[in-house]
Each structure stands twice: as structure tokens, then as C-alpha cells.
Fold this protein.
Amino acid sequence: MANVNAPFGFREYSGTGVTPSYEQVTLYNGGIDYNAAAIYFGDPVVRVGTGDGTIKQAAGSAGGSSVTMAGIFKGCKYYSLVVGRTVWSNYWPGGSPVTAGNQSTIEAYIINDPNAQFLVQSDSTGMAQADIGANVDFNIGTGNAANGLSGAYLIHTGSAATGFPFRFVGLVWFPPGANGVATSGAAAAYNYAVVAFANVETKTLTAVNT
């Protein structure tokens, strides 16, 4: 059965933590740039800039040694002037739901544990067993405002890629017949990959296995 193209961002697969929060940490007191565009559940995020501790959605094709991930976005809490109360959400809606004076009310939840692994859908080229050990890039895709889920997906870049933010560690094989499951070691469109951080604030691993 052909895999259906339905990316969902970077979803926790394994790590040192336990469900439901795994390695989730909190960025307090203005963790998100109040004027940032939308950030969806499962999006890779980066710092806004040097000297600015807030985060924003990472750009698509964000690879290269100059880009360091802050982590994977898992939701937020903020005081909304629109509805006049504290809001807990699995995504940041963008559009300045708070003002600069209320930015300190924003809490952002991310995963930045260097041992975390994530499930993510590949692009139309797909990942292959032979690619294990390669550093790989991603595209941000289109997030879903209805459910807050990310549309990020993995780009097949091959084992020659260096400096990219994620390391491909394996394919998903079970359950047979499910969407995204590999049926052989060869690349297949939109198969599911397991990746770890290669370049995140808590770990830098830019070399490629040979």
C-alpha cells in the first residue's frame, strides 16, 4: 500500500523521560517572541536572534552548521488580551495575541533533550536503510490551525549532508500495512523515519558517519 502524504511534524518516539511529557521543559517569562508567526505542535524552533532568548518557528530547509535548533515545540501558555484570560494551547496562534507589555506571561514548552528521538514523515523521495547515520534537513510545511499540529517533514539529503540539524537513526517497520511503515530497506515515498538531534542547543553532532 502506498504511503499517504500527511506530515505531522516531529513526534516523541523515545527518550529518557516518561509519558505524557517526556523530556519537555518550560521557557518562562516571554519564551516566545510575542510578535512571532504561528508555531505548531511538533515544529522545530530556533532562537529569534543573538541576545534574544525567545523562540520562533524554524524556517524550512533550515540546515547548515550556522543553524542550531532550540528544540521541538510542544505548546504554550499565555494571558490573552483577546479573551481576557490565561490560555493553554498546543500551538502559538501568532498575530500578537499578547502585547509587548504582557510578553512576560508567555510560557513555551519545548523538547531539547539531547537523547530524545522523534518520529517524522519523509518527503516524496523517502529515507532508506542505507541512509542511517546521515544528518538530514527538514521543511516546515503547513501547520493546521484547526488542531494545532505541525506540517513539518523530513527532506532526504543523503549521507553526504553535513551540518544539518537532525540525524537519521532508523525506519519504522511496524505495524505492517500502516501509513508510513517501510516494507523493505529501500527508500519509499513518505515513509516514517526516526531521528535524533544532531544540532541543538544542548548537543552539537555535525560529523557524518562514514
Remarks:
- Residues 17-111 form one domain.
- The chain has a mean pLDDT of 85.
- Residues 11 and 119 are 5 Å apart (CA to CA).
- The radius of gyration is 17 Å.
